[in-house]
Amino acid sequence: MAQLLVRNVSDDTVEALKRRAIANQRSVEAEHRALLELALEVERQKQVERFRAETDAIRAAQKGRVFKPSEVVVREMRDEN
User: Fold this and answer.
1) 29-68 pLDDT tens trace
2) What is the distance between the alpha carbons of residues 43 and 36, in angstroms, rounded to a whole number?
3) pLDDT bracket for residue 81 (50, 70, 90)
């Protein structure tokens, strides 16, 4: 597994991380890892929500439209030539 080195972290942030680690019964390193994973999961969820909103908007825009089967469209295109 890869390793990360975080520099220039304020003393207050380090102390808050230590307190959080103690509260969650983890090492500071494990708590740091958990926070990174949580932050990335939240971002992934936001991306999924944006994608769902976009697909819902497309579905709403297409609602009520009647679509021809693709084989009919292909046949019509062949007949035009």
Assistant:
1) 999 999 999 999 999 999 999 999 999 999 999 999 998 9
2) 11
3) confident
Hey, what amino acid is at 15?
A: E
CA dihedral (21, 15, 40, 25) in degrees, to 10, reads: 0
One-letter amino acid for residue 6 of the chain = V
Place of tokens 């297409």: 62
Q: Provide the 3-class DSSP secondary structure of residue 7.
A: coil
Residue 28 Cα distances to 19, 38, 41, 53, angstroms: 9, 15, 20, 37
